[in-house]
Amino acid sequence: MNTLKKPILSLLMVIAFAVISTATFAETDAGRATYKPAEAIDIVATRIQSAIEAISKGASSDEAAALIKPAIDFSKEINANDKVDNARAKANRKLKSAMSHAKESALQEAEQELKDAKKDFEALKSLI
After folding, report:
1. Which of 21, 22, 40, 85 could cross-link 35 (Cys pair, CB 3.0–4.6 Å)?
2. pTM exceeds cut of 0.90
3. What does the alpha-carbon distance between residue 42 and residue 89 come to, in Å, rounded to a whole number?
4. What is the model's pLDDT at position 95?
5. Residue 23 maps to a domain
6. Which domain holds residue 112?
7. 95 contacts: CB under 8 Å, gap ≥ 6
8. How far apart are CA 95 and CA 65, in angstroms?
């Protein structure tokens, strides 16, 4: 039994290393665009700024919510390390809060949340 344990254990270790290494070296899909973290942060900040400007110009609550949604969705593209991801999650909570304020027609609160979220997203660049 001992003579079988060693080759089986070795084989399992080789398989485990092969599985881990293929996942590590996997590349993105050909049809999917990838962004560098700083680039993604800039895009999210731009989308937040457009939502702030729309609210200040008198956009309706539905229009404001429709402008905040792409910023929330695109913030998932920001991926650098654990510190950045934790800070991104905190900033993303402010975006979600702004979205809920916009849906409730509390646009002043939504605008303030968006301004805070924009500052937080721009601060992510220092963590990269």
Report:
1. 40
2. no
3. 16
4. 92
5. no
6. 34-127
7. 48, 68, 71, 72, 75, 113, 114, 117
8. 10
